[in-house]
Amino acid sequence: MSSFEYPGEYYEVIRKDFRDVAGETEFLASYLPPGGRVLDIGSGTGTNLRALAALGHSGVGVDQSSDFTAYARAAAPAGPADGVVEYVHGRAEEYVTDQRFDLVYSLFSTLNQLDRAGLRQLLTGVRGWLAPGGHLVIDIGHLLNFVDGYQPNIIAHHQGDDLLVTRLARQSVHAHRAVWRNEETIIARDGAGKVSMFANFFDQTVFTAPEVRDLLADTGFEVVAEYGGFRKEPGPRIGRGPLLFVARAAGAVQEVAA
Fold first, then answer.
1. What is the pLDDT of residues 35-71, one digit of tens each?
2. What is the topology classification, in CATH, of domain 148-205?
């Protein structure tokens, strides 16, 4: 089972070097009506939900990390115009709800942490959680992205206002299971000079784009758009780069323009 138990403020420092929050927010909001309801699968430290709440959207975030969930709850917006967000600590494939959402999304290759059976189970649930006209957005790591980005060992430094985070990572591949393992050590030094160290790992299932399309179709979705980034650019012509799928319940009427 994957482990992400280290302070959320460290992840926030790391995340800003990988993600475009403004682009993600604009992309996600384009599939929401005013005051829409959202479900963030793998909500982490709540970055995306906070940004959407500032636009008046409400919803739920689900994440398996207790540290990240605690950070997200503490950082939840409290402005009178902000949407209301609830954070649930738990694994995505075990989450159940009777709520309905205008948008369900999962970013940063979170769904790759599920095996094929787990992803099918989750998507089947999501199909029933969408409100009429609702959309599903998946940002998934695909085979060519893994191959093109493979590095056996990585050392990266991430600088915050008064925090330096060094990430030591080792990648390995289990060919017969089509699983990519990432083992990481996080070393953080705060403004007072205190040094903390945390070890974590996560396995990622390697999917191909056709496999994801077939899985979405098998679980009752139709793909309405595919992009290579949150600015709605075309899919990458090289291996490295995100692959975004936008889907809706098969046979549903599209109510929000892409």
1. 999 999 999 999 999 999 999 999 999 999 999 999 9
2. N-terminal domain of TfIIb (2.20.25)
Per-domain boundaries in the chain: 8-144+206-249, 148-205
Structure tokens belonging to residue 153: 């060992």
CATH topology for the 8-144+206-249 domain:
Rossmann fold (3.40.50)
Same fold, 8-144+206-249 and 148-205: no
Sheet holding 163-174, edge to edge: 153-159, 163-174, 179-190, 195-205
**Residue 184's CB: how many other CB atoms inside 10 A?**
20
Q: How many CB atoms lie within 10 A of CB 229?
A: 18
Q: Do the beta carbons of residue 28 and residue 48 sit within 8 Å?
A: yes
Cβ–Cβ < 8 Å for 23, 250: no
Read off the pLDDT of residues 161-175 as tens digits, 9 standing for 90 and up: 999 999 999 999 888
Predicted confidence (pLDDT) per residue in 208-251, tens digit: 889 999 999 999 999 999 999 999 998 777 666 678 999 999 97
